[in-house]
Amino acid sequence: MRHQLLALLLFALGLATAPARAAKPIKLALIEGLSGPFGNAGEAVYRNLIWAVERVNARGGVALPGGARPLQLLRYDSKGGAEESLALLRSAIDQGAGFVLQGNSSATAAALIEALNKHNEREPQHRALLLNYSAVDPALTNERCSFWHFRFDAHADMRLAALTDQLREDTGVKKIYLIGQDYSFGQHVLRRGREMIAAKRPDIAIVGDELHPVGRVKDFLPYVTKIKASGAQAVLTGNWGNDLTLLIKAARDIGLEARFYTFYGNGLGVPAALGEAGIDRVLAVAEWHPNVGTASSDRFYAAFRERFPRPEDDYVHARMQAMVEVLAAAIERARSDEATAVARAMEGLTYDGRSLGGVHQGVMRAADHQFIQPLYVSVMKKAGTPGARFDNEGSGYGFRTLRFVAANQAAQPHHCRMQRY
């Protein structure tokens, strides 16, 4: 009897001292071009997302009834191709990912949405959501909207509205040139840009309207030569990644003295490419930028730079951080990581920004799954001048706010008619 009691005691002690079983992670699958012509943009996104995941996990993970669970970010390199992305989607779901993250191509996002619509109908026990951080073709939350897709970036019409409101006040511009990438997003930017300029500044002559191949132009000098010859005093472009950096470099090399109204001109090499020539001439629009100027913004930016101290890694976006925070909040609200339950919980969810130190707020509009958030239009300045305390990517040049657009003003009408589950 004594031996039996001793054995039971030793068994109980063993249970008490054994390490706790690690909680099953909630898997997030990043499907993005991490190599190829836009590999630098994909890696910049990865840095943002891994930092967001690390912050959630540092505070204990996502609280669920069975205990807190960590987030796990899986990397899948699509090389920028839609077909490769679709193959990787299958792999991600097979590995248990219920949340797919993608954004650096509206064409790829459209393909993933369509694939998820079919997959989630066919395999309801393995459903997944697409969380989109930068695919901004408005069709994705309008005629192509889906219950399984949530967009966290301001779409192209929101960004264009902010830029063209600023253009309306730029009375020195009488001629403008439109140039963009030849796919759904770039085509839309030029079409809607033309319409908005005509409505807000009918006195401006559009002296060029041109599309170029995506990620295949190595020398933009022929394009910039045409822009210079047109006499344009401003250029409007939605170009991103190397297609924007190389366009800007060519403009510098040829001495093009025009203002650039851009979606993404405040990162990925653009400030360094232009240098002094870009001061007061490159404008960008975003949901946040490092020189917002509040104490919470300064702390947020300092924390990112501490995590990624190399100047070339200086690319941080509040919307990507908010996306992961909203996902975590929706999982907790749903008390489940099942995709359908999380989608329902995410609809209408208001993010107050507290988990980001108050740096960014927004609401996920239930009707079309478009995140409604503020926007800033900013202009390039020499770092250290008023309103431009921080530079970008160690270039010595930063951006100062020209225009703040509140979330309710940035919102645009929609015509989404989605099927709900």
UniProtKB/TrEMBL annotation:
UniProt keyword list: Signal
Key word Signal present: yes
Alphabetical list of InterPro entries matching this protein: BCAA_transport, Leu-bd, Peripla_BP_I
Signal peptide bounds: 1-22
This protein's record includes keyword Signal: yes
UniProt xrefs under Gene3D superfamilies: 3.40.50.2300
Domain Leucine-binding protein: 25-384
A Pfam family hit: Peripla_BP_6
Family of the protein in this entry: Belongs to the leucine-binding protein family.
Protein name (Swiss-Prot/TrEMBL): Branched-chain amino acid ABC transporter substrate-binding protein
Lineage: Bacteria, Pseudomonadati, Pseudomonadota, Betaproteobacteria, Burkholderiales
